[in-house]
Amino acid sequence: MTKYVNRSGLQIAAELADFAENKALPGTGVAVEAFWGGLSQLLHRFAPRNKDLLAKRDAIQAKLDDWHKANPGPIADMPAYQAFLREIGYLVPEPAPFTIGTQNVDPEIATMAGPQLVVPALNDRFVLNAANARWGSLYDAFYGTDALDAPPAKAGGYDPARGAAVVAVAKAFLDEAIPLASGKWAELGDPSHGIALADPAQYVGQSEKGRLFRHNGLHIEVIFDPAHPIGKDDPSGIADVLLESALTAIIDLEDSVAAVDAEDKVLGYSNWLGLMRGDLDASFEKGGKTVSRTANPDRQYSDGLTLPGRSLLFVRNVGHLMTNSAILLPDGSEAPEGILDALFTSLCAMHDLKGLGPLRNSRAGSIYIVKPKMHGPEECAFTNDLFDAVEDILGLDRYTVKVGVMDEERRTSANLAACIHAVRDRIVFINTGFLDRTGDEMHTAMQAGPMIRKGEMKTSSWITAYEARNVGIGLSCGLSGKAQIGKGMWAAPDMMADMMVQKIGHPMTGANTAWVPSPTAATLHAIHYHRCDVFARQKEVAALAVPGLDPLLTIPVAPAGHNWSAADVAQELENNAQGILGYVVRWIDQGIGCSKVPDIHDIGLMEDRATLRISSQHIANWLHHGIATREQVDSAFSKMAAKVDAQNADDPLYEKLTPDSIAFKAARALVFEGLVQPNGYTEPLLHKYRLEKKAAARG
Question: Malate synthase C-terminal domain spans which residues (predicted)?
């Protein structure tokens, strides 16, 4: 049982109170009594408003359900549909043309273009890996992945043939990004005689063994070391090529974590505090030895040049939906978790602003918070007001706390300009979250009829419009040069060859960042930002017409009378059931919120709650409309439980799925209760069953 202490009329979990009073508050200049008093006032002011916004979501959804019941199937009269959406407040008037006013933004966000990592906050090793992913070895990235079009490395240590192929492709990249005045990098001789570049301005300095260059705003360091095992066989003594890779990283307290109580929240806050101080230390076993990992220092070059050694860090708070038992209100109810995150993560970031640790994050003096799952401009305005209040409690200047808006709910993407306007003086980020956006698309029109198959969603007209509108509206609101316009995750970390072919599409849209699943992927994806000058591309995209609402609001429902074969139905159910079980069993039993989960074809894909939302809502939709029966769904779950058990046979912590296991019950509930879940979210049921599992483990 959680032990509570009273602070300013609130019941605070003892471990959270201890964290705040003995770790987070010291050095910030914020008094303990003022902090708890401020939190009490914050909750008194914002918790009822938060509740009202959630009630408005439910009221709007009820009206949508009624409308679709009366007008089933694809939208037949788009003007009438949009008039209805305006009538119920789903669509709001567009704001007059405006430009965001955000100031004091670090260059990694405002004026540079490059990859972005997202990493679960509860794992100290992972968050340090992400922070340290600012620089990556191009040699290592090619050698260890299928991005290199060459035979796999032979077993038994270093493979010289594959190594030679790595060197060749890396030097070909240098010819692209840093061309020599004459000849190729493969022909470069002794560098001590100088390196003549086609554009001498690309050379910016040197380290003890490296020469530093710049292209498209990103740095490349070529390491010369004839004594190195690789450099000794290179005619120029080149031992490695380092790329500036993950410019930014998001430390995630939301979709990629299983944080359900005070214990989990304190772990996440503690890791964030350690990153903000620069003194986080992760120790773990590797190869029979204890390894300690810390944050990299900044990088020093000639003429006093210093470059950041770490990615610039955001923290992603939770959305408006969930509450958490870490703090109880005077009436005994749980506090809204998003309000807690806003105050506690900002408090932790004050250690960076005040330089209380050995390393710094924001050189511009800002705190960067990503806010997910907001529905429309009214909820964005709520976040803006909440951040105002947090700044007042902590004694921070107005707009110190910046916000990243995830454009991942249908009501937000349909009103994106108004959403940006609501946070126009603190916004630093918009990003398309097409996974949650697909889940919300299905739940919003749940009553319209059976949805098309999940695999067909990616070619739906609304997704094309959604991705293009995100960039076009962002540019029209003046984000270029001031904020990030982002794109979504590459979900297959073992398929880097495919990523290299496809993901250049993200910078080509005019997005100056896109998500990657690993530091290695960040280094490879960085190549795309050398091949595409994003800020030049943004000028071209800004001249294009922004897609209108018609394609965006075209729902992916199957035509009336459409029939799928029995084999198609079974295949769709099994694919969804396998994905649900594979993710949920780790979430419930082991508290793993994001990991590489084998799909039905045994391909490892990065899964989080957003992918779970799609799969569970899709089965719920087919079940509701009679495309599948309860018996068919249960049969798919039973069959796929055996497959998931087999896929996890080598995990010593894995617990098999049985009809009585808590994880299996959770998976079924996500489908059979999916129709009534708020906006189709998975969090309420996941939290319920995870808490049940934790209680059972304690006995």
Answer: 569-670
